[in-house]
Design a protein that fits this description.
By secondary structure, the chain is mostly beta strands. It folds into two domains: about 60 residues, no CATH class; about 120 residues, DNA Polymerase III, subunit A, domain 2 (DNA Polymerase III, Chain A, domain 2, Roll), CATH 3.10.150.10. About 15% of the residues lie in helices and about 45% in strands. The protein contains three helices and 13 strands; from the N terminus they run βαββββαββαββββββ. The strands form four sheets. It has a five-stranded antiparallel β-sheet with strand order 1-10-9-8-5. α2 runs antiparallel to α3. It is elongated, with a radius of gyration of 21 Å.
């Protein structure tokens, strides 16, 4: 999983540097929210951070050492309200098994088709699914994303009014936008995802319980609910 954010700024000279996240976060947490911050890269491997009340230097490394974030290729883009996205995540993500030895059970299934976005998760004992109506029709696309990335997107979406989801061949981008900030969550797909979520089959037993079969190219997982 990767997270990227952009913010409006007055840029005097272009530049880039990579610095330790823990050190930068600890320092920034001490600054006032109303302070104007000045950033400058010195000597190619040092970041100078200045505010009206303080300044510091943080040793870093070349920006080229930072891993590149892949772009979504061959994908689709869809917009939904932050409320719809968060409701779907909260109703689905709990059913995933985050620390499962089977990665497919630690993911959330995304399927976009026509005017619908379907999200589902299962830990092999329970299955939860949510259908979100879209404003425009989109081409069919499916992907399974680690639940940890989905939950992080849900947390950031709490600040946004609208969420843009880009589903590619092997990843999902979730773009949350508010005020002057754009935050993108990049979730790499779990391999060998179920190719057809419509293979979920429900059977009713004599005692009124409901059995759900979650099937796909990796096999079948069964769960039972009252």
């Amino acid at each position: 999983m990767s997270i990227a954010t952009t913010s409006e700024a007055v840029v005097k000279n272009e530049g880039a540097i990579t610095v330790p996240a823990k050190i930068l976060t600890a320092y920034v947490s001490l600054l006032k929210a109303s302070d104007d911050i000045e950033l400058a890269a010195a000597d190619g491997a040092t970041l100078e951070v200045k505010s009206p009340s303080s300044k510091t230097k943080i040793k870093g490394i070349s920006a080229e050492e930072f891993p590149s974030i892949a772009e979504v290729k061959g994908g689709i883009s869809l917009d939904i309200s932050s409320e719809d996205f968060r409701n779907a995540v909260q109703e689905v993500a709990f059913a995933a098994q985050e620390n499962s030895s089977r990665p497919i059970l630690a993911g959330v299934f995304f399927k976009a088709d026509k005017n619908e976005l379907r999200m589902a998760a299962t830990d092999s004992y329970r299955l939860s699914e949510r259908l979100v109506k879209l404003g425009v029709a989109v081409d069919p696309k499916t992907c399974v994303i680690p639940v940890r990335a989905v939950l992080e997107a849900d947390r950031l979406a709490s600040h946004a009014e609208k969420v843009t989801i880009m589903i590619g061949e092997n990843q999902v981008y979730v773009l949350c936008r508010w005020d002057q900030f754009d935050v993108t969550i990049d979730g790499r797909a779990i391999p060998r995802l179920p190719t057809n979520h419509s293979k979920t089959i429900y059977h009713h037993s004599r005692n009124g319980s409901r059995r759900a079969c979650f099937g796909g190219s990796t096999g079948f997982y069964f769960c039972q609910t009252k």
